[in-house]
């Protein structure tokens, strides 16, 4: 499958259909001016006007007294666009899947049943879990009657296509598939602090289309520190899963897969190999919805679950200046203290924890959550302000007294990972496409390393297991999220980002990759081994 993907990439890129960069005969992007724009999919059916649909409430699941929880992946029909039925692949048949709520110190044993027609792998993104429960791309739940030879046939075909002329003639390891028949249980120790994580499919070569069709959901971790803060709760805490999609004439999800059955041929049609974006913004599975908020302080927990779309978000009232956000948390935990900003950036897979005060607005006012990203889709969600004024108390001045700040003095090793379109027309890390049996690094358990990420395109880089803090970003260090713990960071075109990453709790094989899901599916992944 990996090498078949390479054949696809060679054919598409050499033909010029993906990038259209006639100046780049080698396949290398050489300057920011040559960075291509994403090509959005265009829906072929009527799209509802903004703010005519109510924000849905996503069901919440909590483990039983023994920490057990079961979800079933199945095909289902969902009413995403009003009056139309859309076929999805969903956890418990929902889009997005149920929100799981867990607590620090209370392990979760999540059983996933696969009733689909394709293999799946569920990754808890941002989780600290043993490698056999990390949900890697080779650790698959296969459906009833699935022939595992399909995996090997695709892989063998790809290996046969490799030759010294493609520049990657080194020996590759055998693919270490781990296959589970119809179901498996993931064990999450819940050793981490309060944060909004998320879970999603991570199947080799097909993560993009399977997440696009619905295999994703939010995962909320609570802890005692959060309990002790005066933060908005219940209906004033809004969990918001943002994702863009496009729809066919009959309301079905459009996705430019080379193999619509998602079985033998990975990859997307040439114009979309930079990443797939749509023209409809969904929030919790509804198109550009609205919701009512009281005139007080609210907590917004944001997840960018888009395959490839970068977001820059503002709160815009009908009149007057934009409302400020107070950022209180990043990907995997609370910041040391709140930070006030006027806009926030959110790359694919990143999360943000925000406080917003609506108490100064008149009854009946509308505030829009707007996206100022360069590629359009500006309207996201409307807040209609109504009801009594709930005077907010003072903002907490300290969010986490025990916040650990990593320093350069702790660094025991430095490594560089270059995310780039290689001269052989592959999305690569350090010039190599993903080798499922290899490993690019061997950090030691309990240590801190400095990892430098460089790029030629826009790459949201995600590290499994290791949480990190941003030490340097060539494009500036003003982003308040970078003061906290993260698992994903945006590396802008020709950017350089240094992170201090810490590896705790578990040894074994993990991975880092680009979270532009089409880049990930087309080889931009690498393993590392915690020793």
How would you describe what is shown here?
The protein is mainly beta and 531 residues long. The protein folds into three domains: 52-227, Sandwich (Immunoglobulin-like), CATH 2.60.40.420; 234-389, Immunoglobulin-like (Sandwich), CATH 2.60.40.420; 408-530, Sandwich (Immunoglobulin-like). The protein contains five helices and 32 strands. The protein has helices at 2-14, 149-161, 207-212, 224-227, 517-521, and strands at residues 60-61, 68-78, 86-91, 97-103, 108-114, 122-125, 139-142, 178-181, 183-188, 195-201, 216-222, 237-245, 280-283, 286-287, 290-295, 297-304, 311-317, 325-330, 333-341, 344-346, 351-357, 366-371, 379-389, 411-421, 427-429, 448-455, 459-463, 467-473, 488-491, 496-502, 508-514, 525-530. The strands form seven sheets. The protein has a seven-stranded mixed β-sheet, with no helix packed on it. Helix 2 links the parallel strand 7 and strand 8. The relative contact order is 0.16.
Mean pLDDT: 88
The amount of beta strand, in percent, is 35-45%
**What is the helical fraction, as a range of percent?**
under 10%
What is the first-to-last residue Cα distance? 29 Å
Count of DSSP H/I helices: 5
Number of strands: 32
**The CATH C-level class name of the largest domain:** Mainly Beta
